[in-house]
Design a protein that fits this description.
Layout (H helix, E strand, L loop, with lengths): L2 E9 L3 E4 H7 L4 H8 L3 E3 L7 H10 L10 E7 L11 H7 L7 E5 L5 H15 L4 E10 L12 E11 L4 E3 L4 E4 L5 E2 L8 E2 L1 H23 L8 E4 L4 H12 L4 H14 L1 H6 L6 H12 L7 E8 L3 E9 L9 H9 L2 E2 L2 H12 L17 E7 L2 E6 L1
Parallel strand pairs: 2-15, 4-5, 4-6, 12-13
Antiparallel strand pairs: 1-7, 1-8, 2-3, 6-7, 8-14, 9-14, 10-11, 13-14, 16-17
Helix pairs in contact: 1-2, 3-4, 6-7, 8-10
The protein binds coenzyme A.
The site of coenzyme A has 23 residues, from helix 2 and helix 6.
């Protein structure tokens, strides 16, 4: 029985900062950000968007096509949690009227958490054929104003439906994992921004890629040339590009060209949105599917990395007719219709986002029609509304 991705919803807030503007404001050469880091724009979440509202928006995109009778599991993966105790998924469940009988919870392991959700969902469907699972990854990446990590911020969510006979990607059996207890990136409970050793994190990411990719090929008896494309966790696109260069080392010209072209297509959304932490890998997959020209049966590699650190490599095959399940025009419009913030405006929004939510203050949203947003807080309970 094939199990895999049947739906992919995507959401990013309606504001961004251009990397040239940011470079100029920080007295940096714009090419450092555009080429050295590999980013063009970064999405900015104002106070009306948090991990929950973005997760609702990504899921609402495909909800009308889900058979709710079959839905049995809802997992919310985030490192931008809004509560130490209660799962963000319960807010999603209420907003979208999902059935009361489903099992639902939140999980965390930095940017690996959505992959963990995917594997749990796959096992769930294996154990409960005919049932489906919804998994959501949603984050706001915050490093701090004028820090080295500032250029690798962003915000957004990916929501996926996992079921048998999927319409988009059928996951293949097998995976290789690697974990070690290290301190490359983390966010202690009392901090609103991440603590990061970016150069160390880059080195660990590449080491973990080597520890999972080659063993995966050996275990599955595959060659690099058997992949149509490889998608990477992209906190910034240059990081994935470094792993891509390792993957194509010593390959024939055709393989190098195909994997390099498809790497650029997989990085297209990331260049515009920035870092969305745990959903970043799956935004790369969506970007490749919506901007590339893959054929039925093409194999995609997935490299997932979460700081702390945990990595996994696995693969899936593109399903015939997958294009009909995608919404490239909707996503192109969502990215195009965003508001370009001046750096000062972004700094004000960023600073406000670090503060505790005020009680009983109603927020209004300037997002496009149909968008869910955070309308404020009453008695420490976050209030979500739809425009
Ligand atoms: N033109 C083109 N490229 C330039 C340049 C210019 N004018 N100036 C610098 N660069 C290149 C550098 O050569 C370097 O490329 P390389 O990595 O291929 O060598 C790149 O830009 C970055 O330069 P660097 O000096 O390393 O930047 P930095 O010290 O400001 O840090 C990060 C960059 C990515 C480490 C930092 O933004 C960060 O820590 N981000 C967070 C990463 C993270 O979250 N990791 C954990 C999650 S996986």
């Amino acid at each position: 029985m094939d199990i895999g991705i049947d739906q992919i919803g995507f959401y990013t807030p309606n504001k961004f900062v251009d990397m040239v503007d940011l470079a100029n404001a920080r007295n940096q050469d714009p090419n450092k950000f555009l080429i050295g880091i590999g980013q063009d724009r970064m999405a900015v979440a104002d106070k009306t968007q948090d991990a929950v509202s973005m997760g609702i928006n990504a899921t609402a995109e495909y909800l009308d096509q889900v058979d709710l009778e079959q839905l049995g599991l809802l997992i919310f993966a985030t490192e931008s949690g809004i509560d130490q105790s209660k799962s963000a998924s319960l807010f999603v469940k209420e907003a979208l009227n999902l059935p009361a009988r489903i099992r639902t919870f939140e999980i965390k392991e930095a940017c690996f958490a959505l992959t963990a959700s995917l594997q749990v969902a796959r096992d769930y469907v294996r154990a409960h054929p005919h049932h489906s699972a919804m998994i959501i990854g949603s984050d706001i990446a915050r490093y701090g104003l004028a820090t080295a990590g500032e250029v690798t911020q962003g915000a957004g969510a990916i929501s996926m439906l996992i079921k048998e006979n999927p319409a988009i990607i059928a996951l293949e059996e097998g995976h290789t994992s690697h974990s070690e207890n290290i301190n490359d990136f983390w966010r202690p409970n009392n901090l609103a921004t991440a603590v990061v050793d970016g150069h160390y994190s880059r080195d660990v990411y590449l080491d973990f890629f080597k520890s999972t990719f080659k063993p995966f090929l050996a275990e599955k008896q595959l060659q690099v040339s058997d992949f149509a494309g490889i998608c990477y966790h992209l906190p910034y696109t240059k990081m994935g590009y470094k792993a891509h260069k390792i993957a194509i080392e010593g390959q024939d010209d055709e393989t190098v060209k195909r994997l390099s072209d498809n790497f650029q297509l997989s990085a297209k959304y990331s260049r515009q949105v920035g870092n969305i932490y745990t959903a970043s890998l799956y935004m790369s997959v969506l970007s490749l599917l919506e901007n590339g020209d893959l054929e039925a049966g093409d194999r995609i590699g997935f490299f997932s990395y979460g700081s702390g650190a945990m990595a996994e490599f696995f693969s899936g095959k593109v399903v015939a007719g997958y294009q009909k399940r995608l919404r490239p025009a909707l996503h192109a419009r969502m990215l195009k219709e965003r508001i370009r913030l001046g750096v000062g405006q972004y700094e004000d929004i960023f600073t406000e986002g670090l503060e505790a939510l005020p009680e009983n203050v109603e927020f209004t949203s300037d997002a496009n029609h149909g968008t869910w947003y955070l309308a404020g807080q009453e008695g420490y309970v976050r209030q979500y509304k739809q425009k």
